[in-house]
Structure formats: structure tokens, C-alpha cells
From TrEMBL:
Residues 325-381 form the PDZ domain. GO terms for biological process: proteolysis. Residues 110-131 have a biased composition (Polar residues). The chain crosses the membrane at residues 75-99. This is S1C family serine protease. It comes from the Bacteria. SMART domains: PDZ. Residues 1-69, 110-133 are annotated as: Disordered. Its EC number is 3.4.21.-. The keyword Protein biosynthesis does not apply. Residues 48-65 have a biased composition (Pro residues).
Length: 420
């Protein structure tokens, strides 16, 4: 094959007849007479093969070059309308997706993940901390006495509330309380026991929900706890911690006033002024103690603040005293029937004197004996003995271990109620 510039006529063959012979039409060329590159001895034309027998007419006739062309106006109009419709639909869908994604608010930047909405009323499991708070909070009250603020908790449907004696001390018979929902009510003082630091008031309101009371004898160090109340006048406050010690013997109160003794539950939950009288609650939402005292490095009461050491009266003791107050107007005080020495380090509680007909004398104890353990709990001094004895109800039988001279002896003592 060549490019045509050096073309020469091919030799005569059967494909190229001699002059005078009839010309054969070629199937490869049409209009060949005017083609300058055509072999003048090989005229050509496009020949279509004949249709097979029985076939119909061709599907489409070849275009006629002389036929007038279709105007482009309607076609352009159809294209324009289609483009406008497509743009409108695309813009609408884009706007809807932008609104759903949070990006169509007047061009403002939206932060955070999309498609992760939280239900309006997320339900917490009853056993979760939030679930416990939801159950207990309606039963906790803020007690207001002569401008001071303390806490308390409802223990009966007819309105009895347990609080601390030092919360109501100095007030009159009429008090006011407020609830977590902001409602308020008047309350009346039913009775108080200064030495145990427990008082009972009664709220004039219907539809009250009492707390569930636990068993303070069954708790253990490390158990999780929640402290409810109004510390520093911050009502509806809840703090969390653990039981950090048990039977921590406490002597509280002013030296010139009432002295209070109890074997306390120690906790590291944050407790401050205003928490007094509020409930200490276990992980199941049961009250196990009454928040009463904090330990602080401050020099005065006004300077006192939480340092991770707070103490609660065991609920078994508080419940017993509250029932005495409600039923008789006065609490029974549990005694061992002996006077102890204080202010000395005797590795135990030394008995100064023993009542002749008291529980200690009946168990064989004498003046000068040193009680080293009560119900298995080691005693450091006389204050420890007083606090531990008052933990038990009158009539309880407890084992004591005491030292007389150099000999260690054991005995059982039936505790009694003070007759004074």
C-alpha cells in the first residue's frame, strides 16, 4: 500500500478489462467517475445485496441529503426545560439533606456528630446511681429553723421525719421544710434526744413518700454510699463515696453543753454544714445512717469544711430512738451499769465504779476492771465503751472481755435502759 503520490497503473488483468470490454461495477466505490484517485479502468458503485426471499421492506430508508433539516428550536427548548427541572429537584434535595444534617441554619457552624439524638426522657436503670437518686430524692427535706438550715428524711406516709437534734436545737415548736420539687410545708417538733443527736418532726403534707430503711449491721467497709441533703444551703445535693470505717466512736457537742456519743459509720462522701440530719444511703437506695458530724482542720465551726471524713449515726440506732420518741415522747438510753474513767490511756475502758444492781455487776465486773472488747470490738478508752453500748438496744446480750490485774476474763452482759 502507498500514499498515492507514486501511484502507477497496475498491469492489465481479469480485474481490469481491456478497452472495448464491458465494465464491471465495483462494490467499494460510488461516484467514482469524479474521483481523481480512481482507476479509470475500474468504475465502481455501491451495490446493496438483494433482500432474502420473503423479507419485508428495510427498517429505515437512508437519509436524503436534499431533504430539509428539522428546526433546532424545539429541541433546545426541551433541553432547557429538562435542565431547569433537574436543577430544581437537585437544589430541593440538597436543602433537605443539609437541614437534616444540621447545616442549614443561616450559614452557622454546627458542631458535634449528627444522627445521634438522645431520647427526650432517657430512662435510667433503677439500680444505677441516677435510679437510686430518683427514688430517694422525693423523701429528703430541707429543714429551716431560725435562719439555720439542716436536712431530714421522711420515714412514714403520715409525715414523720428524722433529723439531728442539733438541727432543731434552739428552735421553737413550729418549723418549715422544703422538698426537692420546691414545695414547702410546716412541721411540728415531736421530740428530741440530745445525747443520741436524734430528733423527730412531723410534716403537715399529704402524699409523702417514705424512704426504705436498711440494716446498718450488715454493711461493710468499701460499700458505695450516697449522702443527701442541703450542704451550705445548696438544696437537693447528692454526693457519692464509700463506707470508709465502721464503729468509729464519736464524742460530739460542746464541753459545757450536751455530750453526744455514738459508734458512727465513717464515709468519704462529701458532707458539709447543712447535710446534718440527711440520709446516708447504700447502693440499693436504703438508708443506712443519719449524717451528723464532720471532721475538719478548721479552727472554728464556721471554718469547718469537708476533708473526706464524715460520720453518720447507724440507722438501726436512729430508728430505735425515733420509734421511742414517737411512741412515748422520750428515748430510752442503753447503759451497762458502770461509770468509766476518761482522759487516760489504759488500752481499754477502765471502770471507775459499778452499780450494785446493774448489768455489769450481774456479769461479775468490779471497779478497776478494764474492758478491752465489747462484742468483739476493741475499745480504746471509756468514750469508746459509752458509744458502743448505745449502739445496742436495751435487753441486748453482748460479750465483754476485760482485764483484772494481769488476767483476761470473758463474760456476757445484758444491757439495760437508763431509769433516769
Amino acid at each position: 500500500m502507498t500514499d498515492g503520490w507514486n501511484w502507477s497503473r497496475p498491469p492489465t488483468s481479469s480485474a481490469h478489462p481491456a478497452p472495448g470490454e464491458p465494465q464491471q461495477s465495483s462494490p467499494w466505490w460510488s461516484g467514482g467517475q469524479a474521483d481523481p484517485w480512481r482507476d479509470p479502468y475500474a468504475p465502481s458503485a455501491v451495490l446493496l445485496p438483494p433482500p432474502p426471499p420473503g423479507a419485508g421492506p428495510p427498517l429505515e430508508s437512508p437519509p436524503n441529503p436534499d431533504e430539509p433539516r428539522r428546526p433546532l428550536g424545539p429541541i433546545l427548548m426541551i433541553c432547557l426545560v429538562t435542565a431547569l427541572l433537574a436543577g430544581g429537584v437537585g437544589g430541593t434535595l440538597g436543602f433537605l439533606f443539609a437541614v437534616k444534617g444540621g447545616y442549614a441554619e443561616s450559614g452557622r457552624t454546627q458542631l458535634g456528630a449528627t444522627g445521634q439524638s438522645v431520647p427526650e426522657s432517657a430512662q435510667r436503670p433503677p439500680e444505677s446511681t441516677s435510679g437510686v437518686v430518683d427514688r430517694v430524692q422525693p423523701s429528703v427535706v430541707t429543714v429551716r429553723v431560725s435562719g439555720a438550715i439542716g436536712s431530714g428524711f421522711v420515714v412514714s406516709t403520715d409525715g414523720y421525719v428524722i433529723t439531728n437534734d442539733h438541727v432543731v436545737e434552739g428552735g421553737d415548736d413550729t418549723l418549715s421544710v422544703s422538698f426537692h420539687d420546691g414545695s414547702t410545708a410546716t412541721a411540728k417538733l415531736i421530740g428530741r434526744d440530745p445525747e443520741s443527736d436524734i430528733a423527730v418532726i412531723k410534716v403537715a403534707k399529704e402524699g409523702l413518700i417514705p424512704v426504705a430503711l436498711g440494716n446498718s449491721d450488715e454493711i461493710a467497709v468499701g460499700d458505695p454510699v450516697l449522702a443527701f441533703g442541703s450542704p451550705l444551703a445548696l438544696v437537693n445535693t447528692v454526693t457519692q463515696g464509700i463506707v470508709s470505717a465502721l464503729d468509729r466512736t464519736i464524742q460530739a457537742g460542746e464541753e459545757s453543753g450536751t455530750r453526744r456519743y455514738y459508734a458512727a459509720i465513717q464515709t468519704d462522701a462529701a458532707v458539709n454544714q447543712g447535710n446534718s440530719g440527711g440520709p446516708l444511703v447504700d447502693g440499693a437506695g436504703r438508708v443506712i445512717g443519719v449524717n451528723s458530724v464532720i471532721r475538719s482542720v478548721g479552727g472554728t465551726t464556721a471554718e469547718a469544711g469537708n476533708i473526706g471524713l464524715a460520720f453518720a449515726i447507724p440507722i438501726n440506732q436512729a430508728k430505735r430512738i425515733a420509734e421511742d420518741i414517737i411512741d412515748t415522747g422520750k428515748a430510752r438510753r442503753t447503759v451497762i451499769g458502770a461509770e468509766v474513767m476518761t482522759g487516760e490511756s489504759a488500752a481499754g475502758a477502765r471502770l471507775r465504779s459499778v452499780e450494785p444492781a446493774g448489768p455489769a455487776a450481774a456479769a461479775g465486773l468490779k471497779a478497776g476492771d478494764v474492758i478491752t472488747k465489747l462484742d468483739g470490738h476493741p475499745l480504746d478508752d471509756g468514750i469508746s465503751l459509752i458509744a458502743m453500748v448505745r449502739k445496742y438496744a436495751p435487753g441486748s446480750v453482748v460479750a465483754v472481755e476485760y482485764r483484772r490485774g494481769g488476767k483476761i476474763t470473758s463474760a456476757s452482759v445484758t444491757l439495760a435502759a437508763d431509769t433516769n
